[in-house]
Amino acid sequence: MKLICGIDPGKRGGIAMMDSHEIRLHPYSDETLLNLMPVLHRYNGIVIVEKQWARPGQSISATFLLGEEYGFIKGVIEAYGVNYGTIAPQVWKKEFGVTSDKQSSIDMAKKLYPGINLLPTKRSRKDSDGMAEALLIAEWGRRNYDRYRKD
Q1: How many other β-carbons are positioned within 10 Å of the β-carbon of residue 151?
Q2: What are phi and psi of 97, to 5 degrees?
Q3: Domains of the chain (ranges plus CATH)?
Q4: Dihedral, CA atoms, 72, 144, 130, 65, nearest 10 degrees?
Q5: pTM confidence score
Q6: From the CA atom positions of the chain, what is the Rg in Å?
Q7: Fewer CB atoms inside 10 A, N or C side of the chain?
Q8: Torsion angle of alpha carbons 26, 143, 137, 36, nearest 10°?
């Protein structure tokens, strides 16, 4: 079984888990990350995390929070002994032909997976670009699985 997890970090990010039978999407949360790691470890899954770095014009506190969250994610993955890799947004976005416009990620996710539910909650009216991007990152991981698999 090929179990792949894509993570778009951040408070509006997402987590996507896919195997040959199903796709599960979640808004990003530390709790969800912690709950999924034992499953990924048990089934020798892989995680692809979108690489994070400071951006020009970003405040010091925002940069610190971003680095703290990114370090937490990588630390949890390593603590569970799960295979993982990081991917720059430019790399996976180029493969799918999406731009920095978040709607293009939503549109591509729906094109690749028609009928996919990108609503973060049952009450939401707007699709989550974080969940869409996590799904595209997971799909990138599926296509490049052999780079990260360690048997």
Answers
A1: 4
A2: 70, 30
A3: 4-147 (3.30.420.10)
A4: 20
A5: 0.91
A6: 15
A7: C
A8: 40
Q: E strands along 33-148, which residues?
A: 46-50, 83-87
Distance of CA 117 to the CA centre of its chain: 16
Distances in Å between the Cα of 137 and the Cα atoms of 56, 61, 89, 125 are 24, 27, 9, 23
pLDDT at 148 over 80: no
Name every residue whose Cβ is closer than 8 Å to that of residue 51 and which is 6 or more positions away in sequence.
Answer: 86, 87, 88, 89
Separation of alpha carbons 20 and 37, rounded Å: 18
Starting at the earlier edge strand, list the strands of the sheet with 83-87.
Answer: 23-27, 14-18, 4-8, 46-50, 83-87
